[in-house]
């Protein structure tokens, strides 16, 4: 994923820096639907380079609250359930979850059962940064996280949202 042209200009970063406030908020809400996070990033523009943007995105995402987690979860499909929309965010979600479908009914069935148990235990969907991970890896993660207490799990989910946001910031830059 090249970030600059032969002239040394990062066209993705230039585009992001040139977005109107409204356009910026729309694009970055697809990365992490937390108003405070999006607004904080928008206020820090222009970014000198990708490193500065990623550092700011990471720093602001590390302070996600439990209330912000609940709001952000509303935009995410269950792991293993493909987003069906034609919008960019749905396409990103399908790509990020590509490794979940192993084609194995035993893994799919175990995943559905573990998802149901997770939702009973924590009252929310299981969320994980699934990019580049297999269905078996995600099932093992889900099973392990069922052992967390609610406070620990809340922090784990917030960190998973942060990881997803950073993957998606890169997608915004590279579109």
TrEMBL record:
<dbReference type="InterPro" id="IPR018020">
    <property type="entry name" value="OHCU_decarboxylase"/>
</dbReference>
<keyword id="KW-0659">Purine metabolism</keyword>
<keyword id="KW-0456">Lyase</keyword>
<dbReference type="GO" id="GO:0019628">
    <property type="term" value="P:urate catabolic process"/>
</dbReference>
<dbReference type="InterPro" id="IPR017595">
    <property type="entry name" value="OHCU_decarboxylase-2"/>
</dbReference>
<feature type="region of interest" description="Disordered">
    <location>
        <begin position="82"/>
        <end position="101"/>
    </location>
</feature>
<dbReference type="GO" id="GO:0006144">
    <property type="term" value="P:purine nucleobase metabolic process"/>
</dbReference>
<dbReference type="GO" id="GO:0051997">
    <property type="term" value="F:2-oxo-4-hydroxy-4-carboxy-5-ureidoimidazoline decarboxylase activity"/>
</dbReference>
<protein>
    <recommendedName>
        <fullName>2-oxo-4-hydroxy-4-carboxy-5-ureidoimidazoline decarboxylase</fullName>
        <ecNumber>4.1.1.97</ecNumber>
    </recommendedName>
</protein>
<keyword id="KW-0210">Decarboxylase</keyword>
<dbReference type="Pfam" id="PF09349">
    <property type="entry name" value="OHCU_decarbox"/>
</dbReference>
<feature type="domain" description="Oxo-4-hydroxy-4-carboxy-5-ureidoimidazoline decarboxylase">
    <location>
        <begin position="17"/>
        <end position="170"/>
    </location>
</feature>
<dbReference type="InterPro" id="IPR036778">
    <property type="entry name" value="OHCU_decarboxylase_sf"/>
</dbReference>
<comment type="pathway">
    <text>Purine metabolism; urate degradation; (S)-allantoin from urate: step 3/3.</text>
</comment>
